[in-house]
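Exercise 3.2. Students should predict the tertiary structure of the chain below and write it as structure tokens, then compare their answer with the key that follows.

Predict this chain's 3D structure.
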Amino acid sequence: MSELDSWSGKLSTHKNIANLLNGLQKIRHEKDLKFQAATEFFAGFENKKIAIFGSGQAGYRCFRQSKHICKVVCFLDNDLNKTGSFIDGVEVRSLQGLNISDIEVICIASQFHAEISYQLSTMKELAGVKVLVWK
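Answer key:
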């Protein structure tokens, strides 16, 4: 191997490391933006007790981004097959299994947010509970 080949290999390695570091910085920046968006979304609800309506992917994303801002009491789901299960140690409940005095905010994190919003609006016992829609 010539000296030029040796330097060429080292330069290629340095470029790969630089590309890797740039990629990591972009990921970090994206995470910072997501955290900032979550912080803005939950502004005014810091340390509030919330229930996340939806125990699928959107509900889990909402949970991951809100758990450092709010106190997630439970997940809610209309699918009775999911009730009684746990997501990261947080129980999935049905609306019938919800103790209203345990929560201050319901955050809807579901593709069915319009239907769920209507469902919640018909429940008089939720009159004092703030309802948000996570998108």
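Discussion points: The longest strand covers residues 71-76. The CA atoms of residues 47 and 66 lie 10 Å apart.
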